[in-house]
Amino acid sequence: MSSMNPTQSTSEFFDAAERLNPSIIIDRDSSASDSPSLQKNCDKDRYDGVIADQHRPVFTVGESRKNSCSSVIDNAVETPPLNMKQKSITVAEIQADLANLGPLDLNDRKNLCRTLVNLREMLRNEPVDAWKEMTDEELVTLMNDGSLKQQDLEKKLGDERRAVAVRRLWLSEQIKCEDKMHSLPFEQYDYSMVSGACCENVIGYVPVPVGYAGPLSLNGRRVYVPMATTEGCLVASTNRGCRAIADGAGVAASVYNDGMSRAPVVQFESALEALKVKAWLETSSNYQIVKQKFDSTSGYARLQELKCTPAGRLLYLRFVATTGDAMGMNMVSKATDEVMVMLQQTFVNMELISLSGNYCVDKKASALNWIEGRGKSVVAEAVIPSDSVSRILKTNVDRMVELGEKKLLIGSSMAGVIGGFNAQAANVVAAIFLATGQDAAQVVSSSMCLTQMDKTAAGDLRISCTMPCLEIGTRGGGTILPAQRTCLEMLGCAGGHPTKPGKNAHILAETICATVLAGELSLLAAQCSGDLVKSHLKMNRSQLNLMSTVSEPAVALKDQCTVPKVGSHERRHPASAVNNAFKLSGCANIV
Ligand SMILES: CC(C)(COP(=O)([O-])OP(=O)([O-])OC[C@H]1O[C@@H](n2cnc3c(N)ncnc32)[C@H](O)[C@@H]1OP(=O)([O-])[O-])[C@@H](O)C(=O)NCCC(=O)NCCSC(=O)C[C@@](C)(O)CC(=O)[O-]
Ligand SMILES: NC(=O)C1=CN([C@@H]2O[C@H](COP(=O)(O)OP(=O)(O)OC[C@H]3O[C@@H](n4cnc5c(N)ncnc54)[C@H](OP(=O)(O)O)[C@@H]3O)[C@@H](O)[C@H]2O)C=CC1
């Protein structure tokens, strides 16, 4: 940050102002004389340098150095129009007054804000670049004023990164603490992929650590599976499961059903009329008309089934389609929407209550999905040699089989779970979903899993996982983001398959199911051997958390950071060393 003493040279001051904002051009000829184009606002004791370009923006110096930019501008709003309450002043007068202000930091944009009146003037003729020419603080002023919607920042600025930065600036004012944003990173991210596809009102991103489990021996391949999680122990556990699997012949996994669903609810004047339409839709030739319309909406969506379920005068129409390599919700919703328009022309008494009648069933726990399946239905199976069960998993086959029955089957039945006959399928599903850009909310049905274990004739452990609802894709949604795509590339299934649409999505589904199986093996073994709590206290309970009390502010952790060393006493780093690391970048955990 450079600063200058304004008493030394007014022209230096103007030079710096122009460097700071290239859109400002100061009319020096008139400022060198007692020209009316340099004016003093008598009431507010601030100076407005009149700019010689077509927008005639005015920047203000003076109080803004002590107060926040926005407060100066708030005052300025009340200022009467320039021509009413201003008088001409000389450069000598300006220099004399600026001298009283002390050193002025000309690199701080807050010191040079145009008034709201002038910003509005800039926008009046809607010049293409007016928004881009404004400083961040000026944009915030217009957001506070309601002249600029924060959701329009990307469009107006044509610069996603800057849009995020300005939104953060504005939001930090709203939450009345600029520091609150500090640890939410936003730099080093390609927002062009996010805007219009993955998120709105973007203010940054939450970094989640990504580990890998593997190699997982799956269908004759060796796979390294990326997992994004903050649950210490999860990756280690899944990794141990992969090791046990590798001791046998590996996992065999296969998709046995494929179909994404969308189910509108429609209403008729009577229950009988609803049944008539059901019969019409179930007639083969009519179904073909519907299918033709449905399939015409996409290069990949192909209708497989239309299930019509009546409820009084309501009819629930469950469209099920294959969707290539995409998870398919947008695709199937679009296709269903177009079919419904067509059906409404045929059945004029049919009232479409909603395109989604909750019979789909998306993002809600349901018996229907558990029974019918949704997305990819997959089964994975492996045999673990008995000596690997004792050597790697630290238990034995009989105990595992007994736990499978008493916990996974009887325990889950006692609890009345839907599709929850497993130990931790959701853990692995969520971690791979986050890593590979899946729709996180679909963990609800996607983690439905039946884990079964029995003893083979040779005395080894046979384990299988059946997952009927893996709602996943390798194309579309969050899979376009570079980090998530990289994780898909690790698995060899990024994007659409070049020759067999849908194959990449099947590879991902099989990989998730096989990794779930690895996680099941290890966690169930830890419960057999009584290692669950011990392992989590060692790998999951952070020493940093233990250091803090509820009432301590989070910043205390930075000042007194303790790095645990497994198996030894804590090592305490001097606060200065830790703080240096924090200072390395604008974001606390991005270095
Ligand atoms: C998209 C809207 C909101 C447009 O809605 P609209 O009414 O056309 O928008 P508008 O331009 O009139 O603006 C109204 C307000 O919406 C907000 N808004 C509007 N646009 C933006 C934007 N770009 N960024 C940030 N905020 C925005 C904003 O608050 C704005 O107020 P303003 O600030 O203008 O005074 C509306 O059409 C909508 O809510 N659609 C539903 C989308 C949705 O909820 N998707 C979730 C996923 S669906 C799913 O996953 C589950 C499902 C469906 O399968 C479950 C089921 O089976 O039911
Ligand atoms: N709309 C809704 O109600 C819901 C939406 N979602 C969201 O929907 C998004 C996912 O929707 P989805 O339909 O999967 O993705 P997209 O909306 O991104 O659609 C996939 C696009 O990729 C094209 N495509 C190119 N190659 C392939 C290929 N090999 N296989 C499949 N498609 C290909 C499709 O072509 P074409 O145009 O020919 O079909 C289509 O345009 C997620 O962001 C999710 O969060 C989630 C739940 C509900």
Automatic annotation (TrEMBL):
Gene Ontology CC, one term: peroxisomal membrane
Superkingdom of origin: Eukaryota
Alphabetical list of Gene3D superfamilies matching this protein: 3-hydroxy-3-methylglutaryl-coenzyme A Reductase, Chain A, domain 2, HMGR, N-terminal domain, Hydroxymethylglutaryl-CoA reductase, class I/II, NAD/NADP-binding domain
Any GO MF annotation of the entry: hydroxymethylglutaryl-CoA reductase (NADPH) activity
Catalysed reactions, semicolon-separated: (R)-mevalonate + 2 NADP(+) + CoA = (3S)-3-hydroxy-3-methylglutaryl-CoA + 2 NADPH + 2 H(+)
Pathway connected to this protein: Metabolic intermediate biosynthesis; (R)-mevalonate biosynthesis; (R)-mevalonate from acetyl-CoA: step 3/3
Principal subcellular localisation of the protein: endoplasmic reticulum
Protein name stated in the entry: 3-hydroxy-3-methylglutaryl coenzyme A reductase
Source organism of this protein record: Plectus sambesii
